[in-house]
Design a protein that fits this description.
The chain has helices at about 5-15, 30-35, 45-50, 55-65, 70-80, 85-90, 115-125, 125-135, 140-145, 150-155, 165-170, 180-185, 195-200, 210-215, 220-230, 235-250; strands at about 95-100, 115. The protein is mainly alpha-helical and about 250 residues long. The chain has 2 domains: about 20-160, no CATH class; about 165-250. The N and C termini lie far apart (about 105 Å).
């Protein structure tokens, strides 16, 4: 190698700049918009922006307009965003949000494409699902509470948008993991609701110690139903019978 070529190699190594990772959380609004609007921005960067700024409707609208936005990211936005952003998606991307089981197809005659979020949620990454579980809408919560991943299923219960009605429905469900049922059964706020208590005791997935702890708080009618039930564990049924006898004797 001659001296000129050698110096070229030395200069390249000396002055080569290392690319810094993109700090999405601390980008200025102007820089962030430039990143979003750049057609060369990879889909995974757009997905990261959608997760970090899931509460910023202006940024979400900019993302929806990106031609290279991944469909799973679009589904993520649809399931976490407000009704206004959902309407924007429908009007801008010529897409209808669908949480049913029908496959997503492009209909003839220029009609809207149906975005099957149920199928797309299954394709989401762990980080997408986790963020969706903690901030998503009711449809997303209903899907992700059944995830085989304990981390994701339990994250649904920390979603601030979760309603008491949903918790009662989960407490009745026999196809959810025992971890989810235990989490509901140890939540002081939720277990102040009589309907949730009875749903838990009547659920065979509820750990026996938790169910027995709720027995004294049940009415005679509820105890009578539990006494005759063959779906709950024997110790819970026995505890219900004993409490029913005790309550009747105390009258």
């Amino acid at each position: 190698m001659d001296i000129t070529a050698l110096w070229k190699v030395i200069c390249v190594k000396a002055f080569r700049r290392r690319q810094l990772p993109l700090d999405l959380e601390h980008c200025s609004p102007l820089a962030l918009r430039a990143v979003i609007q750049d057609v060369r921005t990879p889909a995974h960067i757009l997905d990261g922006i959608a997760q970090v700024y899931s509460d910023d409707e202006d940024i979400l609208r900019d993302l929806v307009l990106c031609p290279n936005l991944d469909e799973t990211t679009l589904a993520f936005i649809a399931l976490t965003a407000s009704d206004e952003v959902k309407s924007f998606i429908s009007g801008t991307r010529v897409i209808e949000v669908d949480v049913g089981e029908h496959p997503a197809v492009e209909e003839a005659g220029g009609k809207k494409k149906r975005l099957n979020t149920q199928q797309l949620v299954l394709k989401m990454s762990m980080s997408q699902k986790l963020k969706l579980a903690m901030s998503g809408a009711k449809e997303a919560r209903g899907l992700l509470i059944r995830e085989s991943s304990k981390l994701i299923a339990l994250a649904v219960l920390s979603n601030p948008r979760l309603t008491v009605g949903e918790v009662e429905f989960f407490a009745k469900s026999t196809n959810l993991s025992e971890d989810v049922i235990r989490k509901i059964g140890t939540n002081a706020e939720w277990t102040r609701k009589p309907a949730i208590i009875f749903a838990l005791v009547n659920n065979p997935k509820t750990p026996v110690p938790i169910s027995i702890g709720f027995i004294p708080r049940l009415s005679e009618r509820e105890l009578a139903l539990l006494e005759k039930s063959r779906n709950i564990p024997g110790p819970v049924r026995t505890a219900a019978r004993n409490m029913l006898v005790k309550k009747k004797a105390g009258k």
